[in-house]
């Protein structure tokens, strides 16, 4: 906030109000701290996701412990855990079921390990999308990637929670229509094709439609007219 103070006749000087200036500096400092934390969160999630497939089997317990801590942190940040847990349960049942059908029960333990690694790959990205704002993620990625790539990566990360919610809504609607995709019906592998047709295909179409709307919205805001984009420092 700036006041005009008369020094002489027809002459004015600008004087700053110290409290407002101090508040602005504190806000900028907090914004920089959030940006540093977001950078650390991005690097941490990338390393953690890569480690899920690189670490030895006997070290997976450490990754499980770390990812459990991420779940607790996301829960404290008011993230919805129920859709994620349901998605993991469904994915685990499908993967283990396919392993049993193709290889028999002798490789059941191997199927559990594969499911665990897939979950450990997905969890850090979900945690990042649930705890960090898209503005901060885009601002950090813009330092390393071209602006368009940073926008695409940020949008892909932030759409992860939407995928789980949309899949659940489509699943419930198809169940109400009488589709044979209930947990009991899916015990029969013949009904798996109906799951793909009734849930996965509509979900894919919905995601393509969402991508089209996002691209149209970005074009309307002249996103591709400038090679460099500014970021409001107080967000």
Automatic annotation (TrEMBL):
One GO cellular component assignment for this chain's record is: plasma membrane
Which CDD domains would you find in this protein's record?
EcfT
Q: Which residues cross the membrane?
A: 35-54, 84-102, 108-129
Which of UniProt's keywords are assigned here? Membrane, Transmembrane, Transmembrane helix
Question: Where's it found, cell-wise?
Answer: Membrane
Where's it mainly located?
membrane
Topology versus the membrane, per the UniProt entry? Multi-pass membrane protein
Q: Is this entry keyworded DNA-binding?
A: no
The entry assigns this protein to a family as follows:
Belongs to the CbiQ family.
Q: What is this protein called?
A: Energy-coupling factor transporter transmembrane protein EcfT
Q: To which species is this protein native?
A: Shewanella algicola
């Amino acid at each position: 906030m700036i006041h005009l103070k008369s020094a002489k006749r027809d002459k004015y000087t600008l004087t700053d109000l110290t409290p407002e200036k101090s508040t602005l500096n504190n806000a900028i400092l907090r914004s920089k701290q959030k940006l540093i934390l977001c950078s650390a969160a991005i690097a941490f999630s990338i390393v953690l996701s890569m480690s899920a497939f690189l670490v030895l089997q006997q070290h997976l317990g450490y990754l499980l412990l770390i990812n459990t801590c991420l779940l607790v942190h996301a829960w404290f940040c008011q993230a919805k855990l129920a859709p994620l847990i349901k998605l993991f349960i469904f994915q685990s049942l499908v993967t283990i079921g396919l392993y049993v059908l193709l290889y028999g029960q002798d490789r059941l333990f191997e199927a559990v390990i594969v499911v665990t690694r897939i979950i450990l790959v997905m969890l850090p990205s979900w945690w990042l999308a649930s705890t960090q704002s898209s503005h901060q993620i885009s601002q950090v990625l813009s330092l390393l990637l071209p602006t368009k790539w940073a926008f695409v990566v940020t949008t892909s990360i932030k759409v992860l929670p939407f995928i789980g919610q949309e899949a659940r809504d489509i699943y419930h609607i198809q169940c109400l229509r009488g589709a044979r995709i209930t947990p009991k019906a899916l015990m029969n592998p013949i009904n798996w094709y109906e799951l793909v047709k009734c849930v996965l295909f509509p979900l894919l179409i919905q995601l393509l439609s969402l991508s089209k709307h996002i691209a149209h919205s970005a074009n309307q805001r002249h996103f591709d007219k400038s090679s460099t984009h500014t970021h409001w420092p107080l967000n």
